Structure formats: structure tokens, C-alpha cells
Amino acid sequence: MAAEKTAEEKQTKGRRRRDSEVENDASGKGRATPGRRKRTDKQEGNALTRPFLSMRDYFEGVQSELEKVSWPTREEALRLARIVLLVTVASSLILGTLSVLAGQYLDLGLQNEIIFVISFALIIAGAFWMMRRGWL
After folding, report:
1. Per-domain residue ranges for the chain?
2. Cα separation of 114 and 121, whole Å?
3. Please, what is the average pLDDT of the chain?
4. What is the rounded CA–CA span in Å between residue 22 and residue 4?
5. Number of neighbours of residue 9 by Cβ within 10 angstroms
6. I need a labelling partner for 35 at 20 to 30 A (CA). Which of 7, 49, 104, 116 fits?
7. For the segment 37-75, what is each residue's pLDDT rounded down to a tens digit?
8. Contact yes or no for 127/136 (Cβ under 8 A)
9. Separation between Cα atoms, residue 103 and residue 2, nearest integer Å
10. What SS3 class is residue 119?
11. What is the pLDDT of residues 73-114, one digit of tens each?
């Protein structure tokens, strides 16, 4: 009997089970499992104290999470602050320069329309070249 059961298990091991097999299975698979959290429909306190209890629970949760935080050392915080300031200054200089150049290009293009025509022709030619090379 045990050998037959083992052979049957081997046959069904590598394939998905059909719905009829799931329904006939006595192990309970195929049924909904209960949630992991405790569900309490009972609310503590009255209508006046319930909001304060939920705020207390919130702040207790915040405190427990803050205890889990790995805070940086003073040296790490200063190093990271320097990096942030350096990247901020560099990106603002680059974006400011691009903004000034774009404004000058727009002013020049509005005064002389051929600049826009030549620019768009170069953009279209560049896009065609990139498509031919397989980059787009």
C-alpha cells in the first residue's frame, strides 16, 4: 500500500493539480487561510477616549521604529552633508548655464528664423543617423 501511495505522489509531484483533486484532498489545501493579524472587532474605550488611544498606539509604534534605526556617526553625517551640498551647487550651476544658453538661443532664433530651420534639420539628421546605427 505504501509503495502505491509513493508512486501516486511521484506522478502528481511535477504537475499542477486540477480543481477536482484540490476539492477531494483531505489535507485542507484549496481553502482560504485565516489572516495572520489578530482581528478584533471589539473597540476599547468610549467615543471620547478612542481617538486618544489610537494616537497613543501610533506614537508607541513610532517610538519602537525609531529604536530600530541605525543612526550615522557625526563624521558620516558631515561627509554626507558635504556630498549633498556639492551635488546641489554643481547641478544648480549646470542647470543655470543651460537655462541661459537656451534663452540666448531662443532670442537669436526669434530674430533670425533660419537658425531654427538649420537646428531642426540637424536634429532630424541626427535622429536618422541614430536610428540607422540602432541606438533608437
Report:
1. 74-133
2. 10
3. 81
4. 20
5. 9
6. 49
7. 665 556 666 767 777 788 889 999 999 999 999 989 999
8. yes
9. 84
10. helix
11. 999 999 999 999 999 999 999 999 999 999 999 999 999 999
